Amino acid sequence: MRRQGARIATAVTSAGLTVGLLAGCGGSDGTTLNWYINPDGQDTLNALAEECSTDDYDIAIQLLPASATDQRTQLARRLAAGDSSTDLMSLDPVFVPEFANAGWLAPFEGDLAEQAVDDDVLAGAAETVTWEDEVVAVPQWANTQVLWYRRSLAEAAGLDMEQPVTWSEVIEAAADQGGTVGVQANRYEAYVVWINALIQGAGGDILDPDTVEDGRDAEVTIDSEAGAAAAEVIAQLAESGAAQPDFTTSNEGTSLGRMFPAEGPGSFMTNWTFVYKNYEGLIGAGGGPADEAEFEDLGWARYPQTVAGETSRPPIGGIDIGVGAFSDDVDAAREAALCVTSPEAQAALAVNEGLMPSRQSVYDSPELQEAYPADLLELYSVSIEEGGPRPKSAFYSQISNAVQSRWHSPRDVNPESTPRRSADFLEAVLRGEALL
Q1: Which fold has domain 144-301?
Q2: Domain limits of the chain?
Q3: What are the pLDDT digits (tens) for 275-317?
Q4: How sure is the predictor about 29, in pLDDT bands with cuts at 50, 70 and 90?
Q5: pTM value surpassing 0.70
Q6: Of 50, 133, 242, 316, which shows the fewest CB atoms inside 10 Å?
Q7: Whether 189 contacts 69, CB under 8 Å
Q8: What CATH number is given for 12-143+317-386 in this structure?
């Protein structure tokens, strides 16, 4: 999942220094490889395209729409028509199974597969690029959510943030201190991210993981104790004074401004890794910390527990690079995909854009150790390693829309009825007995 509506400070000069470590050198009069990218990190991605071009091919950037859903639609239309000009694709991990199942992705085999998902790749990221025992894409950057908060707010509430905290504790602490809890609860994909993480944090899943790759025959398991526990968290926030005014339409960007309000104690917020660089780039500029001292009041902790004592399962997202099965030069496209996902490329994306690596070695690199606090880097890598994926299904788009339709509005979520209603509808959608 990618972040939307956020302002990220981009250091283009730093991009040049970091990306300059790449082996490729741009410029050719031959093949052009089209790389369809999402809007995140465009400056660094353009630099990567130039650096990874060779004497044999040039990589040309083609920009996809901002919405993940619109990105999927545009790419799916091209690939369904056998488009040979779709060479490289930046894919949200949840769309990889659908594209692979349709035969739209050229697999990586042998040594190339080993390079794509060697032991350096974090488990949560590596899991997103396999389908039916094949490596069908390469992890470029990985995303996860952590709990961001004002240290002064947590201290005033008496929360020990060195220990695991529950959603219930966070909501109560914010409400007691006049603060808020920022989430993503609009009717869109990030709301499913929240629901899925809550359910997995209670020991359950939307679909049975052992049957999820069975497609329409997968077992729906959202109507469970874990589903009810997830609904209880959403209902508690909806009914509390900690819900932000735009709760039912909230997204990754809307809650950012409430962390450092002109008045008030600030907030707790679950959000993606881009947050740190976002606020760092806004110091004294409005919309963020007023000064360095206020920026130092920004804290971070592992994603909250759904159930006390049950280890949380932070969301997994990011971008995987796929190669179009109908490309005129699949071999060149595979080579280019490995280049734009190299450790040096991942370091550049992290330092310049706040888009974190899928490889552990990059977290340990001097570039990242200088750019981020060491404990934040460790939190990111552990959260990606131990995080929970959304259902890995070729029918994920239908699954997501079915869940959204029964869990939205979050103010109407009921632990006694919502999981059951969503299970009934999701089963009917998968079986072809109901339309979205």
Answers
A1: D-Maltodextrin-Binding Protein; domain 2 (3.40.190)
A2: 12-143+317-386, 144-301
A3: 999 999 999 998 899 999 999 999 999 999 999 999 999 999 9
A4: low
A5: yes
A6: 133
A7: yes
A8: 3.40.190.10
